[in-house]
Structures are given as structure tokens and as C-alpha cells.
Amino acid sequence: MDDVSHILDDLNEAQREAVTAPVSDLLVLAGAGSGKTRVLVHRIAWLLAVEGASPWSILAVTFTNKAAREMRGRIEQLIGQPPGGMWVGTFHGLAHRLLRAHWREAGLPQGFQILDADDQFRLVKRLLKQLEIDDARWPPRQVMGFINARKEEGLRPQHLDDGGDFYQRTLLRLYTEYEQACKRGGVIDFAELLLRAQELWRNHPDLLAHYRERFAHVLVDEFQDTNAIQFAWLRLLTQGRGNFFVVGDDDQSIYGWRGARVEHIREFQQLYPDARLIRLEQNYRSSGNILNAANALIEKNASRLGKRLWTADGDGEPIRLYAAFNEIDEARFVIERVQQFIDEGHRRDEAAILYRSNAQSRLFEEALRQAGIPYRVYGGQRFFERAEIKDVIGYLRLIVNRDDDVGFERAVNQPPRGIGPRTLDALRAHARDFGCSLWRAARELIDGGRMASRARNALLGFLELIDACDEDGDARLDERVESVIEASGLVAYFKKSRDGRGEDRIENLSELVEAARGFAATYEAESDEPDVLTAFLGLAALEAGDTQGAEHEDCVQLMTLHSAKGLEFPLVFIAGVEEDLFPHRMSAEDPERLEEERRLCYVGITRAMRQLYLSYAETRRLHGQETTPTPSRFLRDIPPELIEEVRAVAPVSRPWSGAGGAGLAEVGFQLGQRVSHPRFGEGVVLNAEGQGRSARVQVNFETSGSKWLVVAFANLAPC
DNA sequence: GATTTAGACATTTTT
DNA sequence: TGTCTAAATC
After folding, report:
1. 3-state secondary structure (DSSP) of residue A434
2. Which CATH number applies to A651-718: 2.60.120, 2.40.10, 2.10.50, 3.40.1360?
């Protein structure tokens, strides 16, 4: 046996047990920060080194491209060479690969293209219009959600009952029409990738047998995030095979609303009864107080498999809680602490500000900008999703496949070339009547000679443009992309635009050419890839690129709690810990969704390594409305002894504007001043309003919390 | 075809 | 309150 000490040296007992377990079905329940991915990576190295597994026989699945990249990188680092032959990727990426290799058996055209969420949305919208269905009763988003949810359950229209009522029947009809439209255009959406891949194996036992034979080892990360179709796909590959290694954490399941089912973990235990269960409970990330808070919080959830994290570390600093006057004060406080942290000599990217919803980022951005602290917001628009990029992609798709209506609609009048709504309506009507693509409809209408000559010429010009672009098929990918951009007239169009973003757009277009150059350089023709252009388009759809550049820069990190999963930071702020915001109002009714919110809070807390700040505002402007939220119930789930309340020290010059707002002097107290009350004891003045006899102050009492008191009656004394 | 204006609406997001 | 989309108007 080779020396395997490098694989095992830095592992604890439980990790080692998981890594070295004999090949069989195995479930690793791994808590936050317990070295989950590590175990997976080391397991693969172990299989290669000790079990004599060939890289060829290993399939490792993750959810995001980022996770897949990281896994590949770490495997390479550990075994000292790129993992050639191994299948490491996302569910969608692997399904795509499978379908490219077996397009015929999957019933797809060879050059099939992938619809991203935006393409899908447009298609649904177009369909609603075409079928003259009221988009107020059937909002495109909901229709899309319906279709995706059904596909994620593995259900085709023919499996579904029309429910008898008109609403359901219409949805079903839309689903059917949508499928036909996709088929005509030779396109498939994200959910379809998975469903097709599963059907491919189910309907072709020979193919399935081949892959079952090949993949002697199947490993899955973040198993709690699998949806029904993903699990079904994995089951085909692994059931009765004794080769299924899954890692997951039921407490970190936060994507239920996207079809992920935690129950799959339990189901796993039933379907793979011989599976060994290993728990990883030692946490290497957070200090004791943070961990205890997380444990206490998550214990309030009823449906859990049970797990308690511990650390060999000390208690560390207490968790700090700040009750802000309002959302502006909250941002001020957070940024002040961030600044302090930076002044202590820490890197900016060691600090993260987390929030429940994206809208909350604005105030923090403003405060950071004011303070001159560089920051990065995650979750913005991504490169391949930019309008101008998608325009070019539209042309490219049309070049690959003339019947791709989604590409056609995108490119046909962008830049404007005189093909207006009337011409397009005629095209759509013809396409619908004859069940053909827009491209063919255009051809037929032109040839039929029943068109106004101006529209006819414009349309003909477009068709010829696409055909011409198709001729230099032998050129390098980036040259092709470049000439398409050139021929399309987009650059000239953006140059003319005076909205201030034209230059940006043009720059993005040349970046696209660069991306194509880079892709072509690394692309090695694989037998299952038809051509470079198709492969490039697949990449554009499946890996939409990063949200923002400047990744290398040292920036304070701003993101939602969801996108923080899998990350860690020495200093973490969780802002807006208020009822209706977190847990979100829309989840408050349903106990299951509430548990998911709590898990989300658990995820947030466990991101913190050394310092954790929680904050809420006592008044908050929400949708232009002044609200007075109550502190989140999650705060009550954390034992008070772990929390240190940060005293409100108000800036002296805090503007106290607004009609009817009393100057504090007028009330007789100052913001931040300590006062005592005969019954409530001592506290700090937080806020004031009204004047004269109706003047009220808000006082945060040490023992009984914050209260509004009418000054005239309260008998407050400075102390 | 561009620009303005009114109205709706406001979790979380990857692929 | 701020953003986004669609209709209305130039």
C-alpha cells in the first residue's frame, strides 16, 4: 500500500472513519464547519490510493459551479495531479454532458440549446400572449414556477390530472404548449436537463447498465439540497450497488422553496438500509459562544435528525446584540464596527454583512461608500445574463439552429432594424398556424410576397445576415463571435445610445470575445461535443459567470444569508433580526417554512468564526412605510448569557428633524442619556417624539427592555 | 423608435 | 421608498 498518511494525517477520528470506510453506502451527517467537503475530497483520494479505484469510476456531484470548481481544485491538490477521467460537476453540468453524448436516445436534436431562467420567462410570456391567456390571472412567473415544480417532481403533462377546475386546466395546457414550443425550437430548460437525463437512463436500460458499471463510486455533497428528480437520478445509478457516499446537513437545508427536500436524508436511510451513518460534530470554525448559540437555536426545530456541534476552542467573545433606533442607525453602527475592525489591522474581506433580503443591502452600501470602505455585494447580475451579452448569444444560437425561436426573438430587432411589432405579430401568427418556427415563417412570408416591401426587406436583411454569419464556420470561435458582433450592428447601436451605458456595453462585448478566445484555447474537442460554438453556448447558460468583478480586491463582503452558505468569516454581522423581516413575513404562518427560516439563521450564525453581531431596528422604513418591528423570535432562542447587549451611544448631533419631532432638549433629556424610573430602574434614552405634555421618550431599561413613556407622567430622573 | 410617465409591487437563487 | 415594466406620448 502506498503511503496514505497525507490523506489521513489532519483528520479527526470521525472524519477518518468516513474517509476510510469500506466501500458501501454511507451517510455522513456533517454539521456546519465540521469539514464536510474535506471528507469528500479525502474520500476520493482514499478510493484512488487504497481501494485501487480508477479516476474513471468516480462520479462526484455538487450543486454549484463554485463548489464543483473547489472540489476539483482540492482533489488535484491532494493527489498531485488533475483528476482526469473523473466526473466532477453539478447535477446540471453532468446531465448536460450525458445528454450531449446521447442526444439521439434522449430524443433531442444534436445541437440542442439550453434556456436559462430569463429565456424561459420570455418564452412563457410569449406563449401567454399567443394563447390569449390573461397574464393577470396566470402571471408568467407563476406559470414558470408551476412548470419547473412539476418537472422537478418528475411529472410530465400526461402524468397530471387537470384537477377539474379552469385554473389548473389552463396551467396544464400551458405546460403542454410550453413543451411543444421547446421541442419545436430544439431547446431545453434547466429542469428539463435533469428530467431528460433521468428518463434517458430509465428508458434505456443498456445505457444505465453501462453507467452503473462504470461509476463504482458515487459521491454527493450538500445532499440535503437535492430535489426529487436529482435523487431519482442518483437512485438509478446507485440502488443495489453499495457505492453511494453522501454528505449533508439537515440543519442547513434552506432551499426547500426551490424543491429541495430534506426528507431525502431520511429516505436515504430507508432506501439504503445497510448504509453506515457517521456524524461529524466537531466544529473547527467558530468559538464556543457562537456555537452554543447556534446549537440552542436549532434545537427549537422539531424535525431534525439530531446533532450537536462542539469545539475544542474556548468560549471566545460574546455575541453582541445592537438595538438600533432605526435602519439608518443600524447601518451606521455596523459600519462603525467594521471600520474599527479594519483599524485593528484586519483585512476587509474578513468581515461580512449578512441580511435576509437583498433590498437591505442599500443602506449598508451607502454607509460604506460614505466611509470610503471598499465593499462587494454578491448576488447581482452575472456576466452572461447581461442584456447585450444575451443579444449576441441570441445571434449565435440562431446560427447553430435556425428554428430556435428564443434566439430569434432576441436578435431579430436588436439593434432595431425596422422589424416592428406588426411584422413580428404576423410572423408569430404564421408560425402558430403552421406549427413552424419563426425563421420558417419569415421565409414563407417573404416568399409568399404578401408583405409590405419595407418590412419584407428588413426581414430579408436579417435572414441573410444570419446566413452570412454561418458561412465562416471554420474560423476560430472568438473570430466568429467577433464577426457576429460586427455584423449585427450592435456596437454602432450602443455607440449611439445616450443612456450612459453604451460604452459599458461595448466593453462587455469585447469581454465576450475574450471569453470566447479563452474558451477556444482550453477547449479540447471531446467526442460527445458537437462543436465549439455549441459547447460555448452551453457554458454561457450553465455557468452564467461571476456577479461582479474585483474579486481579488480586499473588500467587505455583503450578501444574503442564503448566499453565505458554505462561507466563513472572522467577523459577521446579521442585520435586521426582526419579525417580518427575519423570519420573513411570508414564512411566518407555516411551521415548516418557519423551521427553514430558523435553519437559515443557524446558517448565518455558524458563518462566524470569532465575532458575531446581531442587530435589529426599533423603527424601520419599509416600502416607504414607517414600521415598528419587534425583535425576532430567534433572538429569544439564544441563551441570554451568550449575548452582550451593546449600549446605544447616540451621536450628539443626530438630526432630529421632521414635523412634530421634539427637540430632545425640549423634552428635557438627551439621546443616550442615562435616566432612572421608579419602577423600571435605570436605562438609556433612545428616542423621542411629540412635544409639550404629549412628548414621549423611548428608554431602553436594563432590566425590562425598551419602553415608550410620556415624559409628563413618567417621573424620569437623570442619573 | 425614443422618452416620459404611471402603476404595481416589494423573499431567498442556482442551474 | 425605490425599482421595474408597460403603456402613452412625442
Report:
1. helix
2. 2.40.10
* A575 vs A569: CA distance, rounded Å: 15
Among A583, A519, A602, A592, CA closest to A249: A602
> Three-class SS of residue A556?
strand
Domain with CATH 2.40.10 in chain A: 651-718
Rounded mean pLDDT of chain A?
89
Set of cell numbers at residue A662: 421634539
CATH 1.10.10.160: which residues of chain A?
113-185
Q: What is the DSSP string of A499-534?
A: SS-HHHHHHHHHHHHHHHHHHHHH----TT---HHH
Whether A92 CB is under 7 Å from strand B: yes
Residue keyed to cell 472568438: A478
Residue nearest to nucleotide C1 (CA to C1'): A624
Q: Closest nt to A359 (CA→C1')?
A: B10
Residue A517, burial from CB neighbour count under 10 angstroms (0-12, 13-18, 19+): middle
Positions of CATH 3.40.50.300 in chain A: 2-100+195-282, 319-382+546-646
- Per residue in A614-650, pLDDT (tens digit) is 999 999 998 888 899 999 999 999 999 999 998 765 4
Report the C-alpha gap between A700 and A686 in whole angstroms. Answer: 7
DSSP state for residue A662 in the 8-state scheme: P
Q: Which nucleotide is nearest to A361 (CA to C1')?
A: C2
> Quick one: average pLDDT of A137-149?
90
Over residues A517-527, mean pLDDT: 76
Give ∠ CA A398-A400-A406 in degrees, rounded to 5: 35
Strand B contact with A93 (CB < 7 A):
yes
Task: Convert A111-135 to b/e letters by CB count within 10 Å (16 or more is b).
Answer: bbbbbbeebbebbbbbbbeeeebee
Report, at the CATH architecture level, how domain A2-100+195-282 is classified. 3-Layer(aba) Sandwich (3.40)
List the beta strands (DSSP E) in A72-216. Answer: 87-90, 113-115, 187-189
The span from the CA of A442 to the CA of A403, in Å, is: 11
Residues 591-630 of A with CB under 7 A from strand B: 593, 597, 623-624
A385-541 classified as CATH 1.10.486.10: yes
- Judge whether residue A621 contacts strand C, using its CB and a 7 Å cut-off: yes
CATH T-level topology, domain A113-185: Arc Repressor Mutant, subunit A (1.10.10)
**What's phi and psi for A404, nearest 5 deg?**
-75, 95
Q: Please check whether residue A55 is in contact with residue A48, taking contact to mean a CB–CB distance below 8 angstroms.
A: yes
The model's pTM is: 0.86
End-to-end CA distance of chain A: 76
Residues in CB range of A202: below 8 A, 6 or more apart? A208, A236
Beta strands in A10-163 (DSSP E): 26-30, 58-62, 87-90, 113-115
- Report the 10 Å Cβ neighbour count for A295: 21
**CA–C1' gap, A267 and C6, in angstroms:** 47
Per DSSP bridges, beta strands A217-220 and A187-189 are: unpaired
What's the pLDDT band for A298 if we cut at 50, 70, 90? very high
**pLDDT for the residue A704:** 72
List, as one string, the DSSP characters of A449-490: T-S-HHHHHHHHHHHHHHHHHHHTTTS-HHHHHHHHHHHHTH
**All 3 cell numbers of residue A27?**
451517510
The Cβ of residue A232 has, within 10 Å, a number of other Cβ atoms equal to: 18
Integer Cα distance of A670 and A686 in angstroms: 9
| pLDDT tens, position by position, A484-507 | 999 999 988 888 877 767 788 888
CATH domain A319-382+546-646 topology: Rossmann fold (3.40.50)
Model confidence band, residue A226 (pLDDT cutoffs 50, 70, 90): very high
Q: Is A594 helix (H, G, I), strand (E, B) or coil?
A: helix
